[in-house]
Amino acid sequence: MILVGLTGGIGSGKSTVSSLLEDKGAVIIDADAIVREVQLPGSPVLAKLAEKFGAEVLASDGSLDRQAVANIVFTDPDALKVLNAIVHPAVGLEMNRRMIEQRTTNNVVILDIPLLTENPREGLQGKIVVDVPVEVQVERLTKFRGFDEADARARIGRQATREQRLETADFVLDNAGDLAALEPQIEKLWEWLKSLPQLPPDYEPVTPIPNAGPKTPDTKS
Ligand code: ADP
């Protein structure tokens, strides 16, 4: 297994990059999707969230009302800690399980983590950063993802800055241009990924640094 992280600010095109890499043959471990999965109805995580925050965090169909949770933790740092203490370990375990499942393969495994800069993780062979100016993020979020401008700017403002993200990058994708401009960069990225050494088959995933949790959960990313 070759194991790298992929990150980028909201609206930078991280999901777009992720699916282009998947087309190349990479295995994607998508942190956001795992967060949703561990909170599905019937899960121990959802039961604990309902116990701690009350039935108000449940939608009428019994699923988690992510917006209700976001509203609670937005103004209450202690509630955010409680949320993270319930959700993060379950997500971490599932991510580790998927890495262990891959460790005896020769696959390129991409950990797709929106807040990788905010929550650094050891044990990766590199970090890919999808880079765009803030104005491009705002434009794409408002044009394609239904955000209003103030909300887009507020969400961007709660994430790491472009500079902080770039400082941690081993490979930068410039996604300020169109998709045609992204594709040749994906080719180069894939060459780089394939050139990395295979990790040993007994590779042990390293759990991220605790208590550095996301500042706020993102209900729309
Ligand atoms: P993220 O996962 O980083 O939040 P997305 O991959 O969802 O971002 O991209 C945000 C929006 O911008 C999506 O609608 C996507 O289709 C679009 N997009 C991504 N990259 C480009 C690009 N190079 N040119 C035009 N639109 C793009």
What does this structure look like?
The protein is globular. The protein starts with a strand and ends in a 26-residue tail after the last helix. The protein is an alpha/beta fold. The chain has a 5-stranded parallel beta sheet with strand order 2-3-1-4-5, sandwiched between helices. The chain has helices at 14-24, 31-38, 44-53, 66-74, 77-102, 134-144, 149-157, 162-167, 179-195, and strands spanning 2-8, 27-30, 108-112, 127-131, 171-174. Residues 8, 10-16, 140, 144-145, 175, 178-179, 182, 221 line the site of adenosine-5'-diphosphate.
Short description:
The protein is of the alpha/beta class and 221 residues long. The chain is built from 9 helices and 5 strands.
Keywords, please?
single chain, 5 strands, alpha/beta, about 220 residues, binds adenosine-5'-diphosphate
* Strand order, largest beta sheet: 2-3-1-4-5
Morphology: globular
Are there runs of 5+ residues with pLDDT below 50, and where?
Answer: 211-215
Strand content: 5-15%
Note the gap between the termini. 28 Å
Ligands bound to this protein structure: adenosine-5'-diphosphate
Largest sheet: 5 strands, parallel
Mean pLDDT, nearest integer?
Answer: 93
Q: Give the beta-strand count.
A: 5
Structural class: alpha/beta
Order of secondary-structure elements:
EHEHHHHEEHHHEH
Rounded to the nearest angstrom, the radius of gyration is 18 Å
Helix content: 40-55%
Q: Please tally the helical runs, counting DSSP H or I stretches of 4 or more residues.
A: 9
